Structures are given as structure tokens and as C-alpha cells.
Write the C-alpha cells for this entry.
Amino acid sequence: MLIASTIGPIDAGIVSALEDAFEKETGVRVRHVGAGTGEALKIAEGGSVDIAMVHAKALEEKFVAAGFGTERVPVMYNDFVIVGPAADPAGIKGMKSATGALRQLAAKGAPFVSRGDRSGTHVAEMELWKKADMKPEGAWYRVYEKGNEGNAPTLRYVNGNGAYTIIDRATYLSLKDEISLAVLVEGDEALLNRISVIPVSKTKFPKVNSEDVARFVAWLTAPDKGQSIIESFGREKYGSPLFFPDSQQWHKLHR
């Protein structure tokens, strides 16, 4: 079975951890190809993968509505944070509103880096600018030309340029020992980053391995299986988990 997965969870290691545990339990071999959410869904639209793991609700709904996928299945979430130089020349540290922080960055012309690649991270960033009633443009706003390589290379670029950006917390935690950037704005509901899986339609692509996909989705969403791995992943290394369970089954059990 082949997954087209957004890059952040791959870089964090959770995708491989889930694949390996599922393979060990069922004998079903699972492998992934990594791309930003927009590109991952394009790959899935070609019928060359069995399932997509992505994090941009509007793009996901469009994919399902067009008949390429069967349904969006919530699996896990983490959150985005706004990071920048520890000295914080733009003065956004501790702000409770992510959109307020973005407006202040723009007003001060603070250097801001965008992935600019229609990945889930880029889509989330653009939605925040929209909520802030702003269209970011000008010399202060830079699109990283290699943004499609993922959040980790982008964050290293931001670090090397003393800039600000929006990034998922898992990527930040995985790199925090090699960068000097600080988390400046966090905790706003608007910064939640929800990750879903979407089985590719067997009706549209008869070669899709729908039987094993169904087993994988059931395993991923089971509170004592995939959700349990998600709940503890990263806790030992970072002192807190990198992702949080988000399946319907998990929420029913933990109401």
C-alpha cells in the first residue's frame, strides 16, 4: 500500500512509526511518497497511490467532491506557531492573536518567509493572512524558492535569514537544538493543524488496494492502536507529544 503524505509528519517521523507498527501487526507493507498537500493530492489524482495523508481542509473537500477520494478521515492534529528571532525586533512575542501578530509584522516590514507552494502549511498561512484582512506583499515578504522541499529546509532558511514564519510545532521541536529561532505566538485556535487521511476511490481507479486501505484506516483511527501511538509519539524525546489523536473513535472514548 502506498501513501502520498504531506512532508511535515514524514520529517517528524510519525508516518514511518505508524507504517512500521501497522506492518508488524498485519504483515501489510506500507510505504510513502512525500509532497506538500497540494502536490500530494495531485499525485493521488493520478491514481498511483492508495491513500493520501494531508492537512488542508478546503483542498481535501475539493478532492473528495471531485470523486478522487472517498471521504476525509480525521487522524491527528498538532498546531502551527509563529517563530522568529529570539530578540523579536517586531515585538510580537506573547500576542494571543495570530492575525494580530501578522498585521504587526506587516506594519513593521519585518522579514517574513513563506513556503509559497500550496502545501498545507502555505494554505494555512494564506488563510491566516485572509483572516487578518491582508494580502502580504512587498520586499519584507519572501517566498522561499525551495519551499516545496518541506518545512524543515524552510525553517533552516528562515533561521539563516533572521526572519519570521509560520511553521508546525513538530518541525520546530525536531530542529530546535540546531536553530536560534524562538516560538513567539502560540495557542490561538486559528493555529490548529488538523491532519486527515483520504482513501483514493477504487471506482475511479480500479487498481487501488482498497481492502488494505480499509484495514489501515480502521487501525489508524482505533484508540488502542494508531491513536495510541500518536498520543505518545515524541513524548520521550521532546518532553511532550508532537501530535494529538483526533479520530472520531478517540473522541467518543474521551468525552
